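Posting this for the archive.
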Amino acid sequence: SFFLFMTIDLLYPIGGGSVMADDELRYSLRSVEKHLKNFGKVYIIGKLPSFLKDVVHIPYDDVDRSKETNIYKKVLRASQDETISDQFLFLNDDHFFLQDFDAPTFPYFYKSDLVVTLQRLPHYNLYSKSVLRTAQELQQLGLPTFNFDTHTPIIYDKHRFIEVMTKYDWTNRYGFVVKSLYGNSLKIEGVREPDCKLNYEASKEQIYNVIRDRKVWSIGNKAVCNNLIEVLKELYPNPSRWEI
């Protein structure tokens, strides 16, 4: 029953593209403090926002043209860190919890299938090409093609990440979508959950309607407006232990 006391660390990759001066990370961490339990340290890989304290910073520059490959390289670099827990929860700075979770048992959420996803994506964008390449690679290997690239955190096992993900060819312009490649390579049985990402300006009432009954929600740059900031402040009013 030692699992009762198991904790896992958290990993956030941070780039330079925030349109909110990294405030999304501020509210994400507040949502962690409010809703997550049994986690250890917070690791930040990439850029370190100035308002943070008591986190472990791994400096890392994005050098690849592919956004997906940059994410892969950051997770790989973190996985090679001796101090991070064997399993860790990977979060993006715009992931906000709405329900309570135990970090070590966080579910592997997926939304539909990569092949189905492709039918809804525009053919010409880089992300579509990454999804297509991932689906083709998995199919060739006789592996499942669930779409784990939903806007929720995911647990990575650092040893299995290194072992499995380095076998693929990341030199291609489009890379692979990381969560789906990982989850399906390990044949993880996920939990189907509708994705919740807001990517348009909305009224406060609309935002609350969108996120009602959801477990985790996320935002895109187009959603950033005063109403959104107000909702974040209402949901997550208390500074977290990592804010200066």
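The CA atoms of residues 135 and 234 lie 40 Å apart. Helices lie at 23-35, 67-79, 114-120, 126-140, 158-165, 178-185, 204-211, 226-235.
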